[in-house]
Amino acid sequence: MTVEIPLVNGTSQYTVEAYSNVAYQATVEFYEKLLQLKSLSASSTLTLFHSDSLSLEVVLKEDAQKQSAADARRKDILNSRDSCDWRSHVSDSIVFNTADIEIISSKLRADSIRYQAFPTELYAMELYTVDPMGNIVGVTKTKNAVSTMPTAPPAAKGSFASTAPSSSQSTVDLSSAVSTAKEYPSLPTKNGNVQKAIAVMTSGGDAPGMNANVRAIVRTAIFKGCRPYVVMEGYEGLVRGGPEYIKEFTWEDVRGWSSEGGTNIGTARCMEFRERAGRLLGAQHLIEAGVDALIVCGGDGSLTGADLFRSEWPSLIKELRETRRISDEQFTRYQHLNICGTVGSIDNDMSTTDATIGAYSSLDRICKAIDYIEATANSHSRAFVVEVMGRNCGWLALMAGIATSADYILIPEKPASSREWQDQMCDIVAKHRARGKRTTIVIVAEGAIAADLTPISPKDVHKVLVDRLGLDTRVTTLGHVQRGGTAVAFDRILATLQGVEAVNAVLDSTPDTPSPLIAINENKIVRKPLVESVRLTKSVAEAIHAKDFKKAMGLRDTEFVEHLNNFMAINSADHNEPKLSHDKRLKIAIVNVGAPAGGINSAVYSMATYCMSQGHRPYAIYNGWSGLARHESVRALDWLSMLGWQSRGGSEIGTNRTTPEEADIGMVAYYFQKYKFDGLIIVGGFEAFVSLHQLERARDNYPAFRIPMVLIPATLSNNVPGTEYSLGTDTALNALMEYCDVIKQSAASTRGRAFVVDVQGGNSGFLATNAALAVGAQVSYVPEEGISLEQLSQDIETLSDSFDKAQGRGRFGKLILKSKNASKVFTPDVLARVITAEANGKFDAKSAIPGHVQQGGLPSPIDRTRGTRLAIRAVGYIEANQEVIREARADEDEFDPDDKTISETAAVLGIKGSHVTFTSIRQLYDFETEVAKRMPKVIHWEGTRAIADHLVGRKKVETD
Ligand SMILES: Nc1ncnc2c1ncn2[C@@H]1O[C@H](COP(=O)(O)OP(=O)(O)OP(=O)(O)O)[C@@H](O)[C@H]1O
Ligand SMILES: O=P(O)(O)OC[C@H]1O[C@](O)(CO)[C@@H](O)[C@@H]1O
Ligand SMILES: [Mg+2]
């Protein structure tokens, strides 16, 4: 195969992936490309990144050999056969000059090789991305040049475009653009290219977000040059087989799916698949359809079935061959079942992942329902027993309990004897009532059990509340409302990113790689071994069955246990003897700074109730620093006055953007001194970040600030350094997404219309980017990139193509999301007019301004429950740092604010990757912040942009 690699000014950068090992063809292509590189640019440097099971023999010329002797360790790595993920070993690369390399093709054997070549003295001019078959599918020029990447991927070839490198050593897009793959000798070919057929199915109970998962898998498969298939009706479709049930899909088939609830490819609970005979039929039908890999989006049951199917595969195909139901060629060709799980279930009962696709949408439905019930309960001063789904898992009940500050929950993971749970529930409810609460909410998980494993039904709970407390009580069973409706933003994004990662994982897999399950840990999409996840999930059920509840709880995620402890602490608040001894009890203040954001009230409520349970005194500084400087109000928070805060939007204690220096830092210090605060929690956005910096720097002059201080980031802009997540971003994302869904529907009905939506977020494109991913917007413009004329004209062209392709279809409302600060010149109105003028009557565009709607109404369950979790962590931080600073404070003359142990007692609480972290404000402010831009130096969500663009086929014009 001939590949043309053009040169710009005689210099080029190439990023090429080649796939070999079993694939003789790919090995040869790789070799050819190396030769081509050598002939094109004699002085190029070649960087070889080693990969899994890499065995590559590079013969160096004599000089280079000497030079690289020092590099022996790295060369060893190159020659090693260790299995590892290249992404975590990018630094384990070896650099040669192409002129020094000779390669003996017959000895070249590698599962996958990434190599990059560029002139030593120059930064990248061009970046090439090559699909799994070795075809160049993306060419990105770094300066004002239009990408030559095809828009919507053509049927045969993929087109995962690369992003422009920021330095000569950069490689392509981190999150997804690069994956390694292995091809098998007899895969079908199209236009001379080897193609893998990847099928996706949805199985078990449907879950909001499944459609987004299927869409991402179908489109990513096409990007990667593979053929996407869907299996209709879950395992039922596998058992029945044939083109009616196993269908090839196209790019257009999944248009608009991310905004749709349920699963459009059907699902089922299939009894036949539980039997070997059913699975035998499934194997036969998959092979007949020519499917190489199967991605199953389903719950614990579906993935247990998938794992069993994988383990039985050798015996299934053996039997199929023996009974002549498949040919010898098919037997050889389909030796391994390449399988991958993306967990879709509202129950969130799969071990090793923090969230399953659909769980947060279901939680959203539950919380809304309980918020509604709360109103009528309050009117009648009634008790409500609410039954929620979740099968044998109490996650939905627990999280709903936190998010709605329910009085009591009953979950399968923490059974008690009948007497115990009844006494405990009555004790808490009676105390709440005695303190003036008019409502009672008890949430019962459908799988709730007593310690003797007898089920606890809502009726049982109803009886206890009536008989023992005399409460006017009603039961509400939410039922399938919990599975209905469209997915919340989190589920759409999770499902999309997991879909992309599932295809990457399938392409990465070798016969030796364990089948993966795509999971999320905190904020990070990760791969876990399917077999292990299934084993752990099963062992929870077994432990419960064996009444070993401690073990069952231990097997649940640590976050589950943390949430449960938090719930128990905040729902009994100051009713019992506090946990800490008198000498450990503190006065802790909380203040809101910046614009309102969802979850702020939850943080204040949880901080205060948790403090009460510990024995601390929680104080609220009302109306921010200016309020304090004017001494408007500083109050000890009491339980009754905070009822309902958990579910409220905005900021109950008031917030504004004034920093301590602007307000009068001397007065702020004076009141800190007056109230003798032992610790401070600030909740807010960038002004809150600056506030923490100012207070920490003022410790030298004002001893009152020599206390532990911590910031809980809360801003829809998500621009606080030190975290990848801020409270309020999820609420804002949902508010914007719902708005976009509505106007997209209007645009679709009008047929030829696009809307330009004005998005908030200051200098951060986080909201626009993630909303674009959630709603499938055609374009998003963000401050980090601005709007160039070239990009705009390219986007109008793409939009026009897209309108052409969508002709005759129902789903083609088009959206363009524009961050307010992406351009001062191109306002939404100007953009709409330019687009309309350029569209030559083919379509028109209008502007839409959601404005402060984006700050959200009711906080989302994610912001509520994270608000609780982070607030309680913040109190823990203040407790843990008390001693350090107390000792230092004791000696006035010796106090050194620059001492690292001291400066580290003022920190930002963040979620980074899969960890909750505390990073000192000094470190962040001095080294990790672009203060003038009000932005962190490193943008953690950059990879999401590329995915959002790829999934709608947007062509990108690169700028510096
Ligand atoms: N042990 C098993 N062996 C083979 N197949 C199984 C097994 N368990 C489940 N399956 C298959 O997976 C299908 C779905 O499983 P199940 O009804 O437990 O739902 P799920 O995937 O756990 O989803 P959810 O719990 O969200 O409804 C079953 O109908 C069956 O076809
Ligand atoms: O919709 P079906 O088949 O009645 O199943 C209900 C079950 O499915 C789920 O909604 C999802 O597993 C469970 O929470 C519930 O127990
Ligand atoms: Mg299940």
Q: What labels describe this entry?
A:
960 residues; alpha/beta; 2,3-Dihydroxybiphenyl 1,2-Dioxygenase, domain 1; Rossmann fold; seven-stranded mixed sheet; disordered N terminus; binds adenosine-5'-triphosphate; binds 6-O-phosphono-beta-D-fructofuranose; ATP_PFK; allosteric enzyme; 6-Pfructokinase_euk
Can you give a write-up of this model?
There is one protein chain. This protein has 960 residues and is an alpha/beta fold. It has five domains: 13-173, 2,3-Dihydroxybiphenyl 1,2-Dioxygenase, domain 1 (Roll), CATH 3.10.180.10; 197-355 and 487-539, 3-Layer(aba) Sandwich (Rossmann fold); 370-482, Rossmann fold (3-Layer(aba) Sandwich), CATH 3.40.50; 576-727 and 859-927, Rossmann fold; 730-854 and 944-950, Phosphofructokinase domain (Rossmann fold). The model is unreliable at 1-31, 40-67, 69-96 and 100-194 (pLDDT under 50). 6-O-phosphono-beta-D-fructofuranose is lined by residues 205, 269, 299, 345-347, 389-391, 446, 483. One of its GO terms (biological process) is regulation of intracellular pH. It comes from Lachancea fermentati.
